């Protein structure tokens, strides 16, 4: 839930954990891969990504799947658009693509 995710983010800051890896699955569910998760949690944001994330349901369980939008070469970074909600406090984007929005939110 959002309340739990907010509490965890605050706790991670207090513990000195620099980044959190939270992924919204639906209105009520957020997956926290900060302390436990697979390597996909390290996929970076990009304003012109080569992949996209999609939530699918398999045997009544929601799963996050990363789909390629184009052929991806060996050693090419995998990226997707985090699609963070618009907020007053902006998070700078560092993707440096031609169409970079400048912020993640």
Short recap of the structure:
The protein is built from one helix and six strands.
- What's the β-strand tally? 6
Mean pLDDT: 90
Quickly count the helices: 1
Total of domains: 2
% residues in beta strands: 15-25%
What is the SS-derived class?
A: alpha+beta
CATH architecture classification name of the largest domain: Beta Complex
Shape: globular
Radius of gyration: 15 Å
Helix-strand pattern, N to C? HEEEEEE
Summary tags:
105 residues; alpha+beta; two-stranded antiparallel ribbon; two-stranded parallel sheet; globular
How would you describe the overall organization of this protein?
The chain has 105 residues and is an alpha+beta fold. It folds into two domains: 1-38, no CATH class; 43-104, SET domain (Beta-clip-like). It contains one helix and six strands. It has one helix at 2-14; strands spanning 22-24, 30-32, 44-45, 51-58, 61-68, 79-80. The strands form three sheets. Strands 1-2 form a two-stranded antiparallel ribbon. The chain has a two-stranded parallel ribbon with strand order 3-6. It is globular, with a radius of gyration of 15 Å. The protein starts with a helix and ends in a 25-residue tail after the last strand. Pfam families: SET (PF00856). GO terms for molecular function: histone H3K4 methyltransferase activity. It is found in: Nucleus. Residues 89-105 form the Post-SET domain.
